[in-house]
Write a structure and sequence with these properties.
This protein has 318 residues and is α+β, with helices and mostly antiparallel strands. It is 27% helix and 23% strand. It holds the Pfam family BURP. InterPro entries: BURP, BURP_dom.
Length: 318
Amino acid sequence: MTRMTRSSGGKGSEMGFGVASWNILFLHLLLIQLAHGREFTSDNYLRLPSSNIGDEMEDDFSAQRTVESEEHEKEDKGHFQAHSLSHMDHTDPNIMVFFTMNDLNVGKTMPIYFPKNDPSPTPPRLLPRDEASSIPFSSKELPNLLKFFSFSQDSPQGRAMEDTLRQCENRPIKGENKFCATSLESMLDFTREAFGLEVDFSVVTTTYLTNLSTSFQNYTILEVPKEILAPKMVACHTMPYPYAVYYCHYQESENKVYKILLGGETGDKVEAVAVCHMDTSQWSRNHVSFQVLKIKPGTLPVCHFFPAENLVWIPTSE
């Protein structure tokens, strides 16, 4: 857990954090990106739960499957079809991250998708604020952006860029605040505004304790889940884009954050960060989580695991 503390500096310390903490966080995020190389793909199922995301989910998954390599898709689908998923009858393993609080028991086994580490692609890098600010980030500028990054509009990368810009521009639902951070500085600014200028905060992430042998398998809860007590949280999800973009958001309604030790059937181990959204009454009825869990908005809390490269910011109690 990387902790951010206030500095006592004057004008030169407007970010509100000490130099040492700043450098530690940069190293933390860079290690996450380098250790968990990710393809230029989308994980819209975790960008909860803005605007019409549920209505667009089918298009998003189609685009994601197009971008993913055929070998990766065959591996996951083959493993997926080899298991009985009881009430979860979907055929895309990428959406198998949702569960309910009734599942938070030692010995509970469930199929979970964690993106496997792939060091071969060059991961998108975090840009400094000045550099990120010099590049337009708007769907109106998409034709120019595609030329700038040398992607055609019909290419998988071009469609992923269009989807990212659209999701970032969608209006938040009632009680939600959202922001797409194109630099570390802007991410920290948004988080600081969420918690208050005088509040220290830290970041927690999912950790792969072993090199995952497969992206999708049955996992068993090995220990009693540990709740991380926090009055508010900010979740930041990676977005498919030529450089690193994080979709950050928080809700005014109650959320619970957990660390859960999981053991895979292949021997893999994951210390997973999970969040349970206690009030889903404002979510789109078409959100994929309701389809997976076969529940309706506002009936039960919806929980989900975070991939390793996603971030959860929480206030730090003294």
